Amino acid sequence: MSHSTDEIKTADHWEPTQLIKRIPQLRTLAAETNGVASEPLGEFPRHAASLTFRSQSGVAELHRDFADLFYILEGRATLVTGGGIVGAETIAPGEVRGESVQGGKAQLLLSGEIFHIPAGLPHQMVLADGETVAYFVLKIQENG
Fold first, then answer.
1. Which residues constitute the domain of residue 81?
2. Where residue 83 sits, what CATH number does that domain have?
């Protein structure tokens, strides 16, 4: 059976040590902007992978159709999930942002841990003063 080149698939492989070597560059970029920098690693039909560094807390988020899977590579942060989004605004179809998550559950994110945030769940990454976090993100289409 013959296959056209369109049908040939390859595997992607990201070693934690290779990802950690990219963090200093993202740290520099984050310092020049709003305290967060991301590097896309791959776009696929129903998911995308990226590497993110942050030195500032994020805004509250809700993705109607996408789950987030975080693998913490370095540092620590608090993830607040559930509850409601204060000052919620729809910024794109199915994408809501706001000031903070109120009434959610706080969980400490530590290096080596993996967190899954299902589609439709409000969440916010909160950093204490002076803390940073670097993580691999897999954004997975669950709905739509």
1. 36-141
2. 2.60.120.10
**What is d(CA 21, CA 72) in angstroms, rounded to the nearest whole number?**
14
* CA distance to 24, 26, 65, 77, 88, per residue, from 109 (Å): 20, 19, 23, 5, 24
Give Cα 118 to chain centroid, integer Å.
Answer: 12
Q: Which pTM value belongs to this model? A: 0.88
Specify whether the CB–CB gap between 105 and 93 falls below 8 A.
no
What tens-digit pLDDT sequence spans the chain (144 residues)? Answer: 444 456 677 888 999 999 999 999 999 999 999 999 999 999 999 999 999 999 999 999 999 999 999 999 999 999 999 999 999 999 999 999 999 999 999 999 999 999 999 999 999 999 999 999 999 999 999 987
